[in-house]
Specification:
This protein is about 40% helix and about 10% strand. The chain contains 2 helices and 2 strands; from the N terminus they run E-E-H-H.
Amino acid sequence: MSSVEFVGMVADNPEDKIELKTFHGEIVNDHAALKKEIEAYQPLPKISAGIVERNYLRIKEDVQKIIQEVMESLLNDPTRMHLIVRKS
C-alpha cells in the first residue's frame, strides 16, 4: 500500500446490514498547485513568551468577566434562577 492510499472496514448491525463493509481509496493531489501554495507561504512572526503570557491573562480575565455577567443575569432573573446549582 502506498502512502497516499487508505483502507478501512466497518461493522454493521444484524437488522441494518451494510452491503459494502470494506473500502480502499487513494488521495489524489494536484502537486503543481500544492507547490505554488507552499512557495507563497510567509514566515511566521517571532512571538515572545511575554506576548503569549499577556494574551493568556487577557483571555482568562475576559472569560471570568463573561462568567460573572452570566451569573448576575441568572441571579437577577427569577425565571432562570433554577439553572444555578448551589453547593451545600
